[in-house]
Write a structure and sequence with these properties.
This protein is mostly beta strands and 495 residues long. Helices cover 3% and strands 35% of the residues. The chain has helices at residues 224-232, 405-412, and strands spanning 13-17, 54-58, 91-93, 98-99, 104-105, 117-119, 127-133, 136-141, 145-156, 162-176, 191-193, 196-201, 206-211, 214-217, 238-244, 249-255, 293-299, 304-309, 315-319, 322-327, 330-333, 345-346, 349-350, 353-359, 367-369, 371-376, 381-387, 418-420, 423-427, 461-463, 466-472, 483-487, 490-492. The radius of gyration is 32 Å and the shape is elongated. It starts with 12 loop residues before the first strand and ends with a strand.
């Protein structure tokens, strides 16, 4: 008669001591393509006989004399007669279960005598991410998204209707979602809120949402060209996604690598650095710049992409109603409240808030844009104003509060926004630095064909449409700044 003998066992800790690398120790060359430059502080080759390094298995947690020791017993080990390693990149495997009633934990058991694997179609690439939702397991492959029934299976009738039935299978039938979409090799782009799942498919140059109605390309909501251009030329770029529970936005950050192989630029050397006298300079590091990433947010309430952000996180996470990002090993809380909080402040740096828009009424008519007007809070200023013909306007400063007659007199002819009935107005004055209003060789203002008056003191810009970029400087402004509408007074060009 067979009997079950319960054995107590203790885990062993593998402790190792690696000798500290001093300045006198020779450091190995990293790679020939970096000019055989040696870098101090790199651990030496463990293949060499080094008496200063040692390795030991220990039952004590810290390895010291009379330190805390794990429970005594028999050391657990496994002998595998045929150690054949397999890489199943498109298969699922499950272990035993934990019985909360009896306290028996079999989650560390993978019985080779049972069929405990389930394989998805390998044509669709490797499995990149799994997400458990209710009693389904959603499987994200490189080129396909599927769901596996857990502890149940589907039996199809003669009419083709699926009938869910209980089954002893842990992983039941795998049903693919419609459409050739996958998560590519970007599992960190995945985010979930409620019953909606978001992910990036760089192979098809789109951002997708998985919901009750299937998979939808949300990048097609006004941003198709942008994501097509950004995702089509990625090599080793990292794509990070998360859901901002404060704004209810899916936020995705496309981050181009500044150097995918080593944190130092190949063309740069450590000036004056030797193995005996290391000299490190921050200028030797090729740190990410603003041009290396694009962070955008999608809002379900308007079914559109609402904003770009000036931060590049390592990852996103949420806790209750708080939204966090990680950057350079630190965790940052977004949307903080209080007197110390600043708008558009990310990782200790305050950025300007900008809005770029097109003024394009009667697209086929050449117009003269005379003014720029907006409704909203004070504190907004124009950054750039250009037209399709190349005309440019001088920047318009923000509104200045008028407290006395002298301030009114000084502000009358200033190139800034003026308040009238809670709206802000400003004339558009030509910029002599515009492409079509100044000669590049002589800096002399020249006229365009058909113009009678020209120059930087002439109001109005000609063109089919006008591109306007307005901003608020958050480093000097206090409180939030709202913008409701932007318009321009235009007249049809006589020319």
């Amino acid at each position: 008669m067979a009997a079950t003998l319960e054995l107590k066992y203790f885990n062993t800790f593998w402790l190792k001591k690696v000798a500290s690398i001093t300045a006198q120790d020779p450091a190995p060359a990293i790679n020939a393509q970096y000019g055989n430059t040696t870098y101090p502080g790199v651990p030496q080759d463990y293949a060499a006989d080094n008496a200063k390094d040692w390795y030991i298995e220990e039952a004590r947690i810290r390895g010291g004399y009379n330190n805390t020791i794990t429970d005594l017993g028999v050391k657990a080990y496994v002998v595998e007669d045929n150690p054949n390693q397999q890489h199943l990149f498109s298969s699922l495997i499950y272990s035993g279960v934990f019985n909360s009633r009896t306290g028996v934990n079999d989650t560390n058991e993978f019985s080779v005598g049972q069929d405990i694997t389930k394989t998805v179609d390998p044509v669709n690439g490797s499995i990149q991410r799994l997400y458990a939702e209710d009693t389904n397991l959603i499987i994200f492959q490189e080129d396909k998204v599927s769901r596996a029934l857990i502890d149940k299976d589907a039996i199809y009738s003669a009419e083709g209707n699926a009938v869910i039935t209980s089954t002893p299978l842990v992983i039941g039938q795998i049903v693919a979602y419609a459409g050739k979409y996958g998560i590519s090799t970007d599992p960190f782009s995945f985010a979930v809120y409620g019953y909606r799942k978001y992910f990036t498919d760089r192979k098809r140059n789109c951002i997708c949402r998985l919901s009750r109605d299937g998979i939808t390309e949300i990048s097609s909501y006004g941003m198709h060209d942008f994501f097509r251009d950004e995702l089509s030329n990625l090599n080793n770029a990292k794509i990070v996604g998360g859901f901002d529970v404060h704004n209810k936005n899916y936020t995705v950050s496309i981050q181009q690598p500044y150097n995918s192989e080593f944190p130092f630029m190949p063309s740069q050397k450590l000036v004056g650095s030797t193995s005996n006298s290391p000299q490190w300079h921050i200028a030797d590091r090729a740190l990410p710049s603003v041009s290396n990433y694009k962070t955008a947010a999608f809002d379900e309430s308007v079914l559109g992409w609402t904003s770009f952000y000036s931060y590049s996180p390592t990852f996103y996470t949420t806790l209750n109603s708080s939204f966090y990002t990680a950057f350079n090993g630190s965790l940052w809380l977004h949307h903080t409240l209080g007197s110390q909080s600043k708008y558009s402040n990310f990782y200790g740096t305050t950025y300007d808030s900008t809005v770029t828009l097109l003024l394009n009424s009667n697209p086929s008519v050449v117009k003269n844009f005379k003014t720029l007007n907006y409704e909203g809070s004070d504190g907004w200023a124009s950054d750039t104003i250009t037209t399709s013909s190349g005309d440019a306007a001088l920047p318009i400063a923000k509104y200045v509060a008028i407290n006395n007659y002298s301030a009114l007199e000084n502000n009358m002819f200033a190139n800034n926004f003026k308040r009238k009935e809670n709206k802000f107005f400003a004339n558009l004055l030509q910029d002599i630095g515009g492409q079509s209003s100044v000669d590049a060789g002589t800096d002399i203002v020249i006229a365009q064909a058909g113009e009678v008056l020209w120059g930087f003191e002439v109001s109005g810009l000609k063109g089919f449409f006008s591109t306007v970029k307005i901003k608020t400087i958050n480093s000097v402004e206090s409180g939030k700044k709202e913008l409701f509408a932007v318009s321009s007074t235009i007249v049809e060009s006589s020319y």
